[in-house]
Write a structure and sequence with these properties.
mainly alpha, 2 domains, two-stranded parallel sheet
Length: 220
């Protein structure tokens, strides 16, 4: 808490401070195989985690496993760790009941503090100094300059078919050339050759498909 968050640096090329903002949703975090006996039920199950209730469920589990409700001295209903939980290693305990522990899971990003804060005892005053500090630093130094660089787009089947064949090859080649240009292995004098190569690989159609998907997203 003694180390402040640092804002991004600015320069004559980038005079305005900007940081990439999160779309606040995790995608591409589960899959259904061809041997799944109940794909519809599986989709309903995963869809639940994209609700506020479902996100809190996957983060903290159901009542009676990690936590339970108790009343404090003021008669308020609060969440308290159940007996047997090692309250000195609560994250390790939480990791026993959920994959949302160091892994990306299908869910939305929400605030799980407040009434969802789990206490050691019903009358414990939760220590929120760190989360309050993070919230204040974020509000002062990040929120106003954060922009989602590119939204999460969804392609139609036809659009996906158009780019599927070239997407992997283009991504691989672009990433390789990016590293080569930065390290000097490939001289910048060869930039025009690089552009001609990606054009031959179908970059124009690739961009056109995603531009259409972006326009559709923006219109909605």
């Amino acid at each position: 808490m003694n180390d402040p968050m640092f804002q991004p640096l600015t320069s004559e090329w980038a005079p305005e401070a900007k940081i990439p903002g999160s779309p606040r949703i995790s995608r591409g975090t589960f899959a259904l195989t061809n041997v799944n006996p109940s794909p519809e039920a599986s989709m309903r199950w995963v869809d639940y985690f994209y609700s506020e209730e479902g996100t809190k469920y996957i983060e903290q589990g159901p009542e009676g496993v990690l936590w339970e409700y108790q009343e404090n001295a003021d008669g308020e209903k609060v969440r308290v760790y159940v007996d047997g939980i090692d309250t000195d290693n609560t994250e390790d305990e939480r990791g026993k009941i959920t994959p949302a522990y160091g892994l990306t899971t299908p869910n939305i990003v929400i605030d799980t503090t407040g009434e969802y804060h789990i206490r050691k005892t019903a009358d414990e005053e939760p220590d929120t100094r760190f989360s309050d500090w993070v919230a204040q630093e974020t509000a002062e130094k990040m929120e106003d300059i954060a922009e989602v660089p590119f939204p999460l787009l969804y392609l139609t089947i036809e659009e996906n078919d158009k780019v599927a064949a070239t997407a992997t090859d283009l991504t691989t080649y672009v990433e390789q050339m990016e590293a080569k240009f930065i390290t000097g292995v490939e001289p910048l004098d060869n930039w025009d050759d690089y552009v001609k190569t990606i054009e031959a690989m179908g970059i124009d159609e690739y961009v056109e498909v995603y531009q259409t998907a972006y326009d559709r997203w923006k219109a909605n």
